[in-house]
């Protein structure tokens, strides 16, 4: 009985957080997913940690979720940010069930999805392109950046579809997302075609995301 009470309260909290973000009440119809709460090793990042990595303003910061100092990057160090972000993104799924991962992604969507899309639409300019490798990555940055990768990771979360379909003002930026991503993919497609062995996954991720955006917008 205690287990089911804990599961219910956790799901209720997530929905209420989402409802707070979308004051239109769009979250009220979301189904409650049954999730399993177990011990979490310290290296598993939470939603707030990923927000720090992405350079987003923290919503209702929790002292027990204070992230490590090495998650913070000043604006401009975008390739260092992406390298660290991808490292933790790959690591985040190790030793966790899909339900456990979706708890983190659902909370992230509830608190940080609008800010993530705003940052994706208005990307910072990388200023740490000092080496030859980084300079070659500048042209790809519009379609190969941490905010884009985060959307690819969370596109299956119901909150993502709710955001795209919402008529709330806070979700207005999402209406521009499909066209902007399509334009960016067009701009880099010729370059990617020349070296498809390295960028195939980037192209697959972008087209997959565009397909979901077209379905939900």
Helices and strands, with pairings:
Layout: H1 2-21, H2 47-53, H3 78-92, H4 98-121, H5 132-137, H6 146-154, H7 158-165, H8 177-194, H9 196-216
Keywords: Signal
Signal peptide: 1-17
Describe this structure in words.
The chain has helices at residues 2-21, 47-53, 78-92, 98-121, 132-137, 146-154, 158-165, 177-194, 196-216. The protein has one domain (2-173). With 217 residues, the chain is an all-alpha fold. 59% of the residues lie in helices and 0% in strands. The protein is globular. It has 9 helices and no strands.
Number of domains: 1
Order of helices and strands: HHHHHHHHH
Distance between the termini: 40 Å
- Main sheet overview: none
Unreliably modeled segments: 1-11, 21-42
Summarize model confidence as the mean pLDDT: 76
Count of distinct strands: 0
Estimated share of beta-strand residues: under 5%
Residue share in helices?
Answer: 55-70%
The general outline is globular
Report the radius of gyration as a whole number of Å: 18 Å
- The chain-level structural class is mainly alpha
User: How many helices does DSSP assign?
Assistant: 9
Keywords: Signal
Concise description?
Residues 1-17 form the signal peptide. With 217 residues, this protein is mainly α.
Which features characterize this protein?
217 residues; mainly alpha; 9 helices; globular; disordered N terminus
